[in-house]
Amino acid sequence: MTDSVYVHMAEYLANPGIIGLAQSPGDLVITEFMANPAAVLDSDGEYVEFYNNTGSAIDINGFTLRDDGTNSHTISN
Length: 77
What we know:
Largest sheet: 3 strands, antiparallel
Oligomer: single chain
């Protein structure tokens, strides 16, 4: 089975060109993530790491991470 992670940027898709969001592929890159680590019994050990490849801040508030199934997490302030 292959695991996949998807990032949905609803505000960017609705408002292309909005300031503070990644504008091009590669502007914001998921460099590392840990999903369901065996060492802990809850979600405390889960994380995702992003790399901002631009010279400006990128607002990730409202981005949703989801897997192939029904699991998702929306990033909030």
